[in-house]
Amino acid sequence: MQKTLPALALFAALTGCATVGAPPQGPGGAPAAAYMALGTEPDWTLEITDARLNYSGDYGETKIIVPNPGARASTTGRNYTTNRLAVAITPMPCSDGMSDRRYADTVRVTADGKSLQGCGGRILPPDTLAGTSWTFVSIGGVPVASDRPTSLQFDGTRISGSAGCNRFTGDFKSDGATLTTGPMASTRMACPGAGMAQENAFFALMGAPVGLEFASDGTLILTGTGGKTAVLKRVI
């Protein structure tokens, strides 16, 4: 029986594969606090910082924290080796087995002699928007209101969702770099608080083709005229 994997939430801060001995890179190329990896069945997580390797396994029942011995280059990537914990990171796309998310690295961890497979590094963009579902983080640079549920789904050539007030739907097309939506139909409720302002800002943004960008933490950034953006995080 599969258990919910809390580590998926931690991967909002996933970092990319760094050169040996250098800190991993976060969104925008800034130094990241840690390199993260995870696995399932049984669940485990691994955090690599400049100072330590922090492993949690068997659904949190096993904890191993050891000094970072430094990465050693190998023919397939890079390795970390200590008495209790060994880590092999290979730059090869990997699926976490619990969702459609894919990561840049395949990771093998040996903890107290027990070998486990998993994924790490930055979250890779989906091959296609069709079949993906998202929630809004911010619209026009303003964080969305926590009391207004939001969603954005791509289904075949149709887009639908809510920016915090009315439900909308319409056609979309994308070439991988640009997203264009046709006229969108929506319900016509008036919403209190920030919901209506969020919705108006989103519709204004989508009035012309927008640029598509996927950050290394997996978020989707839609950039419109004048640099206005909508930032979304993936649900499935």
Automatic annotation (TrEMBL):
Protein keywords: Signal
InterPro entries in the record: DUF306_Meta_HslJ, HslJ-like_sf, Hsp_HslJ-like
Entry coiled-coil feature ranges: none
Pfam family for this entry, one: META
Organism: Sphingopyxis witflariensis
Signal peptide: 1-22
DUF306 domain ranges (all copies): 127-229
Protein name, UniProt field: META domain-containing protein
